[in-house]
Design goal:
Strand order of the largest sheet: 2-1-3-4-5
Strand content: 5-15%
Oligomer: single chain
Number of strands: 14
Radius of gyration: 28 Å
Helix content: 40-55%
Largest sheet: 5 strands, parallel
Shape: elongated
CATH superfamily of the largest domain: P-loop containing nucleotide triphosphate hydrolases
Distance between the termini: 49 Å
Number of domains: 3
CATH topology of the largest domain: Rossmann fold
Number of helices: 19
Length: 450
């Protein structure tokens, strides 16, 4: 399914010629024989790009350009004219036109300009997404066995086409896992669309997923593509899938099985090629037993299951994460870079983080903002921890792990803290810990520390 293009021109032969050339290239094309009709179509459908003539009897092309941009600033518009002048081209550019094409418009020139406009729009969207997630990818940082295992699993499933179901507590980075799957797949040139099923009002979920036609319901003033159409040949991430209304689960299952959908208020079947990655922090087996989640939808989604570990299950990664968050928080809040004292790091490593990586990031940012000295002291870290949660040492019980593994985790975390405190100077660290340098090296190798 190609990008949707609107061509506005009062010359019928130009509409026929250009629309035929674009359809051959796989674009979805609508035409309008007047400026006013073009404006009406632009208001009822979200086109990916618009091509319009300058001189039209009812509505001047430059005025139409202004009106289109006032309504949708992001849509790329290509302006064409058979009476092109430098002044006209400059005026079109000032009003937001992507390009100015002189008539007769050559097919190759048109296709190159249109591809450039669509690429520019895609890059702008990607840049917005990059800014949104700047500083968040650290949820996948870590040298712990659990994180190494997760990264290997992501590599294995990324280039498949089967659905993935990601489970894990809030704040563990499930969305980042979904993004890593998309970016490691052959679909990475397509869009990664996201829908948080818990954040959308239940009456709007269907429209968000499948789109709607103009007039489908009150407030639907224009045709709108849903997440599935936007994710065509890409990936759709359904976060908090356990919160999807039960009636919508049946409709979602049908689309997954048949690979086609109908927009709300429409009757045309639209073919889609989308890989679905879903995530939840709920226990779906309990939800199925309670009749709140369909077992057939679970079976459809759970082809490739991935589990994201809680931060308390990989505490040896906390010093690395904390160090990164210290740098980011100082930069974001215009503060000088700070470091954690050994005592402060020990307290932070001992805490269990019910909010996981997100909670650690927020805690570090508060410490960077509220601490005056270059080194964050133990008392300052203790003041931020919930009452009764500031353990005196870094040891903690982890269900499912042997005593030997828990002792290794604790020893690994303490050695990492000591190395960080001594700026990775092994000799100074060994002396501070009362160990021979060679003995410390042996311990580091045995514990997988570099």
């Amino acid at each position: 399914m190609g990008a949707s293009i609107l061509i506005v021109d009062d010359e019928k032969n130009i509409l026929v010629t250009l629309s035929r050339a674009l359809r051959v290239e796989g674009y979805e094309v609508d035409v309008a024989g007047s400026g006013q009709l073009g404006l009406e179509k632009a208001k009822t459908k979200s086109y990916d790009a618009i091509l319009l003539d300058v001189q039209m009897p009812d509505l001047d092309g430059l005025e139409l350009l202004r009106l289109i941009k006032a309504d949708r600033e992001d849509v790329p518009v290509l302006v064409m004219s058979g009476h092109g002048t430098i002044e006209t081209a400059l005026s079109a550019t000032r009003r937001g036109a992507h390009d100015f094409l002189e008539k007769p418009v050559g097919t190759e020139r048109l296709l190159v300009s249109l591809a450039g406009a669509l690429d520019r729009q895609r890059l702008a969207q990607e840049n917005r997404e990059l800014r949104e997630r700047a500083g968040k990818s650290e949820a996948l940082l870590g040298d712990s066995a659990r994180m190494q295992e997760l990264r290997k699993s992501i590599e294995l499933v990324a280039d498949a086409s089967a659905p993935v179901l990601i489970t894990g507590e809030r704040g563990t980075g499930k969305e980042l896992v979904a993004r890593a799957i998309h970016e490691g797949s052959s679909r990475k040139r397509g869009s990664l669309e996201k829908l948080n099923c818990a954040a959308v009002p239940r009456e709007l979920v269907e429209s968000e997923l499948f789109g709607h036609e103009a007039g489908a319901f009150t407030g639907a003033t224009r045709q709108r593509k849903g997440k599935f159409e936007r994710a065509h040949q890409g990936t759709l991430f359904l976060d908090e899938i356990g919160d999807m209304p039960i009636d919508m689960q049946a409709k979602l299952l049908r689309v997954l099985q048949e690979g086609e959908l109908e927009r709300v208020g429409g009757s045309d079947l639209i073919k889609i090629d989308v890989r679905v990655v879903a995530a939840t922090n709920k226990e779906l087996d309990k939800a199925m037993s309670a009749g709140e989640f369909r077992s057939d939808l679970f079976d459809r989604l759970n082809v490739l299951p991935l589990s994201v570990p809680a931060l308390r299950e990989r505490k040896e990664d906390i010093p690395l994460l904390a160090g990164r968050f210290l740098q980011q928080s100082a930069l974001a809040n215009d503060r000088p870079e700070k470091r954690l004292s050994a005592g402060a790091l020990g307290l932070l490593t001992a805490y269990d983080y019910p909010g996981n990586v997100r909670e650690l990031r927020n805690m570090i940012e508060r410490l960077v903002i509220l601490t005056r000295d270059a080194e964050i002291a133990e008392r300052e870290a203790r003041a931020l921890l919930p009452a009764g949660k500031a353990a005196s040492d870094a040891a903690s019980y982890t269900p499912g792990k042997s005593l030997r593994d828990m002792l290794d985790d604790t020893e690994r975390g303490l050695i990492r803290q000591a190395l960080d405190h001594h700026q990775q100077n092994v000799s100074a660290t060994a002396e501070a810990l009362g160990l021979e340098r060679s003995h410390l090296y042996k311990k580091m190798r045995a514990l997988g520390l570099r």
